Amino acid sequence: MSKNWYPIINEETCIECGECIAYCKHGVYDKNTGNKPVVINPDGCIDHCHGCGGLCPTGSITYAGEDTGWTPPNTKADQGGDCSCGGDDCSCGCEPAPVQEASCCDSSSCCCGDDSSCGCTPEPKEIAIDFLYLDLNTCERCMATDDTLKEALNIMSPVLQALNYSVAVNSVNIATEKLAVQYRFISSPTIRVNGVDICNELQESDCADCGDLAGCSVDCRVFVFEGKGYEQPPAAMIIDGILRVLYGNLKADDKPYTLPDNLIKFFLGKESTMKKMSIYEPAMCCPTGLCGVSIDPELLRISTVLDTLKKNGVEVNRYNLTSFPMEFVKNTKVNERLADEGVEALPLIVVDGKIVITKRYPRNDEFVKLLGLPNGILGESEPAKTDESACCCDDNEPAKTSESSCCDGDNKPAKAKSSSCCSGDSRCC
Asked: Rounded to the nearest 5°, which phi and psi values hold at 370?
């Protein structure tokens, strides 16, 4: 692609035949203007391609950045005369236009077309694959399908490269109803090739893993291939689906979409069983604290963790004292802790209304445990090594058994350890 090379149309001589629009494969011309050539994507033009200009019957196309000596064919050989001959033999007596040196982009068998026999480097053609799923941490069906998709693409890679195809895989965790509607999601997992589902029919069966996530019965997809049903698609089915789309001229389904009842039940169940976490933070100049010249790596970690959780459908409320003072006032337990200990108690971590950690942020493995999430959702995390009887309380202070306790009513004094999850001078609930 080039930013300094694109066609220029002479509107006075253009007859609006539409040849240039039909020829260009790179979206340079607006296809919604009939046969009138209007350049809307100059950056899409191939550098030094004369393809559309070579086809123009009136020579009305030149190029910005032209430096090869090329001139449009089919123009008047004598600017003062009426000659419009474009062939090698001119019977009107004028001097024929000079024969241009053949360009690899002056015919349909060039780098802009499907045939690269001219020896130039063809422009890659893209295959867009959407892999849509409900869960990739717990659901065996989704995880196995992800593995099989990678296997199928690995098998096809040499052939696709030879055919000059590039593959772009878009893996999306359909964690909310909004995403389900956006992607017209009907069942998990789904594989689409250029918008076309590889499954010709929808069949489902009970999925215990997704049912556990939602706390209710949930059905997930069954892949039917050669008369047999599979909870994970065979690699041969995925390969067959890709080839059918590429050579079968299949189109994406454009029927009106309605969110299936099965998915409504899943999202409602998942929301009702999900724990709620809020983080109350010290005053900061922006919602994340990621501003200024020097960025606190701990704040960067927290922002990364919360972004990952959000992509997996887990919302964590984040309140800093500058931006959300009313949230500190409204939460009685947070307000009391702030009155007793001051801002040194921040950050405060609250889960389902209970203060569980003070004076620090949770580690990645603590996020997973506190929210009841599958292991691995935040990557590998090595928990801090602590004595089994240790908690987040001060040395020699009994663990509290109140609702705000992080020690689960253990009533054991915390043992001071250098590897404790809290520093010796910090105190949790």
From this structure: -65, -35
CB 72 within 8 A of CB 60: yes
Strand-pairing partners, residue 166, are 126
CA pair distance 222, 58, nearest whole angstrom: 58
Strand 348-351 to strand 277-281: parallel, antiparallel, or no bridges (unpaired)?
antiparallel
Q: What is the rounded CA–CA span in Å between residue 154 and residue 176? A: 31
CATH code: domain 277-371 is 3.40.30.10
Tell me what percent of the chain is helix, strand and coil, each rounded to the nearest 5: 30, 15, 55
What does pTM read for this prediction? Answer: 0.49
Sign of the dihedral through C-alpha 309, 213, 181, 237: positive
CA 297 to mean position of chain CA atoms = 25
Q: Which of 271, 303, 306, 278 is nearest to 176 (CA)?
A: 271
Do 277-371 and 1-122 fall under one CATH topology?
no
User: 228 falls in which pLDDT band (50, 70, 90)?
Assistant: very high
CATH fold of 1-122, please?
Alpha-Beta Plaits (3.30.70)
- Write down the pLDDT at residue 215: 83
How many other β-carbons are positioned within 10 Å of the β-carbon of residue 283? Answer: 12
